Amino acid sequence: MAFTAEQQAMELINRAKQILVTTKDHAEVDSIAAVLAMGLWLQKMNKSFDMVVPGFDAKTLPSFFPSTVPIQPRVGAVRAFHVHVKVGAVPLSELMYDVKDGLLDITLVPKSGEWSAQDIHFKSGDDRYDLVIAIDSSDLASLGEMSREHADFFYRTTIINLDCHATNEYWGQVNLVDLNAVASTEILYGWMERWNKVLIDAPIATTLLAGMVSKTKSFRTPGVTHHTLQAASNLIALGAEREKIVHGLWRNRSISNLKLWGRVLSRLNQDQELGLVWSVLTESDFTEIGVAPEALHGVVDELLAYAPEAKIVALIWQHASQIFVSLYTTTNLSAAELARPFGGSGTRDRAMFPYRDSTNVTEAATKIIDRLRETLNVLKK
């Protein structure tokens, strides 16, 4: 009898020696929570693993999340390189190396005699990881810079792809994709429960519930099903600390951040036919309120959660005399593709680019939105 996708994933994890658990660039709370819960689970299974969230900043992690397993902002070396020198007939006396102007200079000094070119061989080592668990990532490009720097590694390594979004391209060797789930943490909980419910302790339950609560804005967004609510109830019964989650996610936001969100919301514009929503912030907005552009991340999540008709969200702002644009998509449209004509880059659901054709943010916004409208109208045909 053939294995199900879940059983295949379980078998791959059992056999793996070193696992990379990762998620998309510009990860949301649900994505990070799923990565962290997976790490806590693997820790209880005594598996060796690393967790990588591209661009992760530990200061942004809510305090209720367990800190027993570290999250890295980027992946290190995925493969070693070996230099083999035959020293049987010509023994080694000294080994020295120096790095200068980006060049590694290795000096080998024999005790006597000399080596020939035939005595020296070069060989790539084994990959550091023999399994990748990619969470909340619609395709390889969603992993951002990591996917470009280590493309060959991802193509030759087995990948478990876990996601809940309709944009997922089923790009893993094993795909745990459930379009009926509202959050990746909901999928992960169901998998863990069927695998070994005993391993779900209070920290794992809290982490999983946090992802679900964040993704659904406390179960108020479209798509929440009775399965979602049942999963949340089960997690609370397993020790998930709901009050800490709610406090950590929403009750500790600064007045400055809320003021910035207010300005974004008060300036919302919409092209209902195209599903395009945008807002513009000037440099004086940040100066007067006293916040950095990083505070904009949360307002976009709110917009996407409460405005299901918004297919594309564009935030245009000026900071340090430069104009920037962030694009967010919720459909099969790719934010990275929409940003490419402007010289931008990103992932399927989020992209960003600087706009240099104007120094006036209002004028720039008009040109940007007109260009996006043209592109979207072409795509509709």
Give an account of the 3D structure.
- With 381 residues, the protein is an alpha/beta fold.
- The protein folds into 3 domains: 5-76 and 128-249, Alpha-Beta Complex (inorganic pyrophosphatase (n-terminal core)); 79-124, no CATH class; 255-380, Roll (Diaminopimelate Epimerase, Chain A, domain 1).
- The chain is built from 13 helices and 16 strands.
- It has helices at 5-15, 29-44, 145-149, 151-156, 184-196, 202-216, 226-237, 242-250, 255-266, 283-289, 296-306, 335-339, 361-380, and strands at residues 19-23, 49-52, 71-72, 79-85, 92-100, 103-110, 120-127, 131-135, 159-163, 174-177, 269-271, 276-281, 312-319, 322-329, 345-346, 350-355.
- The strands form 4 sheets. A 6-stranded parallel sheet has the order 3-2-1-8-9-10, covered by helices on one side. Strands 11-12-13-14-16-15 form a 6-stranded mixed sheet, sandwiched between helices.
- Strand 5 and strand 6 form a beta hairpin.
- The radius of gyration is 24 Å and the shape is globular.
- The two termini are 46 Å apart.
List the helices and strands and how they pair.
Elements: H1 5-15, E1 19-23, H2 29-44, E2 49-52, E3 71-72, E4 79-85, E5 92-100, E6 103-110, E7 120-127, E8 131-135, H3 145-149, H4 151-156, E9 159-163, E10 174-177, H5 184-196, H6 202-216, H7 226-237, H8 242-250, H9 255-266, E11 269-271, E12 276-281, H10 283-289, H11 296-306, E13 312-319, E14 322-329, H12 335-339, E15 345-346, E16 350-355, H13 361-380
Parallel strand pairs: 1-2, 1-8, 2-3, 8-9, 9-10, 12-13
Antiparallel strand pairs: 4-7, 5-6, 11-12, 13-14, 14-16, 15-16
Helix pairs in contact: 2-5, 2-6, 5-6, 6-7, 6-8
